[in-house]
Amino acid sequence: MRAGVEGLRPPRSLAAGLPPAFFGNDFTAELIRAFDEVLAPVFASLDDFDAYLDPRYAPDDFVRWLAGWLGFPMDERWAVPLIRRHFGDAREGLLRRGTLAGVAAAVRAYTGGTPRLSDNGGVAWSNRPLGPLPGEARARLLVHVDNPDGTVDPEVVDRIVAATKPAHVLHEIFVQAG
After folding, report:
1. Quick one: which H or E segment has residue 177?
2. What's the pLDDT at 123?
């Protein structure tokens, strides 16, 4: 986690905001110097806050927290560069949640491979008014994922698809070796 940085100074001392009546006293100068030292990491973090929210620049331990914050499914054994590499897909899955593109991006973020998705559209019609509907009237999504190295967990893929597809759509997951 974050730690102190030796010799870090704030961009501006707190003494600059004090009225002149407080100066001329060693106690006040030492107290202000102590506060400056304690608050310097806070100011440095706030000055660089946008970098903390960008997975390309965020510290390694913060990348894991950021991925969890977005709901990015990851294995705790994954190296940080792998998380950084798949972060864009996780973001895309979040932004396009409820669409085929969003489901594909979310699954790609976890597996690293491109899944094959197909859906029936959930639309049925008949040639006769009030006639029986052909096919399936219920929306269904099929997700095919390749698992060449055996690292893809079908239960995790199922949870990802369930979280990113529309709630009323049924889904099936097919994880294929090779």
Report:
1. strand 170-177
2. 67
